[in-house]
């Protein structure tokens, strides 16, 4: 379980807040979407969960323990992280990129290699063809798959995904979203997924947390946020897509 309790984050000694009084809990096996526009604090929130950023105040618990009391490496072994943008190291092969955390943890070369092969198969890439390639020899969608494979390397219980399909065309993106739903069912991960795309949020989320200027506007199921918006901001956010959806209905 992941829980945030009244978390604040200021990067400028309290003059402004990237995250303000944020509290929520994520249940085991759940996919929670952090939805909001650019600069609303999504990445900051995600990074605080695995301690890449430390909160100014408040508490973040993973498995009932404050992340600030935990060893960073041990914490990151239990939390896979897919970075915003692509985040692969250009001078490392696919296999080396996937094996970064296993190497840090001291796995033998044989174990690392076997795991890299499993992971490539899991994300739908033939290991024989792709393990030795460099990131610039892959398409954008293939690079995103490697990013997901890398996050799964140590079979973490939690997966934090920061706009992992953000830069992709609609068709590739749809495909990867469906694959993620399949993976989630097979692997039973608890996922926090960041996006600014309302359709992606509705497709992937068990619950959706709407953030606005660092604050939580509403947290609820898709039915709740669409049918009973807690604020004008949430209503407006979902009004436009609802209009678009009704246009699609008319086209049928
Ligand atoms: N290291 C930092 N130093 C100073 N300010 C920061 C830092 N990181 C983030 N911020 C500020 O905190 C706010 C929230 O940033 P954050 O990256 O969390 O937004 P985001 O919701 O992920 O946006 P995007 O959708 O554009 O990725 C922004 O105003 C940003 O400028
Ligand atoms: Mg971000």
Task: Tell me what you see in this structure.
This protein is an alpha/beta fold. It folds into two domains: 2-78 and 156-251, P-loop containing nucleotide triphosphate hydrolases (Rossmann fold), CATH 3.40.50.300; 90-153. It has helices spanning 42-49, 72-77, 94-98, 100-104, 109-122, 127-130, 140-151, 170-187, 198-204, 222-227, 232-251; strands at residues 2-9, 19-26, 31-35, 57-62, 65-66, 79-82, 158-162, 190-195, 207-212, 215-220. It has a six-stranded mixed sheet, sandwiched between helices. A four-stranded antiparallel sheet has the order 2-1-4-5, covered by helices on one side. α8 (170-187) links the parallel β7 and β8. α5 (109-122) packs across α7. The longest helix is centred in the C-terminal third of the chain and has 20 residues, at 232-251. The chain is globular. The protein starts with a strand and ends with a helix.
């Amino acid at each position: 379980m992941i829980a945030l309790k009244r978390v604040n984050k200021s990067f400028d000694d309290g003059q402004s807040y990237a995250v303000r009084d944020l509290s929520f809990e994520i249940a085991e096996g759940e996919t929670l979407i952090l939805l909001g526009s650019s600069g609303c604090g999504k990445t900051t929130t995600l990074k605080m969960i695995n301690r890449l950023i430390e909160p100014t105040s408040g508490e973040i618990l993973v498995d009932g323990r404050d992340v600030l009391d935990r060893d960073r490496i041990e914490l990151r072994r239990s939390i896979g992280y897919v970075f915003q943008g692509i985040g692969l190291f250009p001078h490392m092969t696919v296999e080396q990129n996937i094996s970064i955390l296993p190497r840090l943890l001291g796995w033998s070369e044989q174990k690392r290699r076997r795991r890299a092969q499993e992971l490539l198969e899991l994300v739908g890439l033939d290991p024989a063809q792709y393990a030795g390639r460099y990131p610039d020899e892959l398409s954008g969608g293939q690079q995103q798959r490697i990013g997901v494979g890398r996050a799964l390397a140590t079979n973490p219980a939690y997966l934090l995904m920061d706009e992992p399909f953000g830069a992709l065309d609609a068709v590739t993106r749809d495909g990867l979203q469906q694959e993620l739903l399949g993976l989630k069912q097979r692997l039973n991960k608890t996922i926090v997924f960041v996006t600014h795309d309302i359709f992606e949020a509705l497709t992937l989320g068990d619950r959706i947390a709407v953030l606005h200027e660092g604050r939580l506007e509403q947290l609820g199921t898709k039915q709740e946020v669409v049918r009973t918006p807690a604020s004008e901001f949430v209503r407006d956010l979902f009004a436009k897509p609802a209009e678009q959806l009704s246009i699609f209905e008319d086209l049928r």
